[in-house]
Amino acid sequence: MARAIIEDVPPLVKLLAEDRRYEFEAYKFVRDGLGYAQEVLGFGDEEEFDEAGNTRKVRHVSGQDLCHALRLFAGHQYGYMAKLVLQGWGIRGTGDFGEIVYNLIRIGEMTKSDGDRRADFDDVYDFDTALMREFAIVKAK
Length: 141
Fold this sequence. Notes:
Strands 1-2 form a two-stranded antiparallel sheet. The protein has seven helices and two strands, in the order H-H-H-E-E-H-H-H-H. The longest helix has 17 residues. By secondary structure, it is mainly α. It has one domain.
């Protein structure tokens, strides 16, 4: 009986139990951020040919582009709190985006192309400066 229960557990739940570095919200953020990159920012519109020579649209987003889209998405969603929110979920740099993406690839929730590498996500930008908006506190008149 216990074995049947374990087999019915969704892959993401198993992943969260196996790799405790990131919260569920981190995975949801990256998946939603991919949609933001594709739908809002227009990243990933490419054509590719299948074996029969037919063309089809592919919605591939590179690791670097996804990192930049996630920066914009975080700012849009959480404003000045973006860095703190992401850190609360275990995300401290662009390399963490890569870890999350490759975990999602491993469980079949995302895909990659032949040219994609985990290292594509490393050091894309400095988290401390990229997620901090400049603002000034001014005295009201």
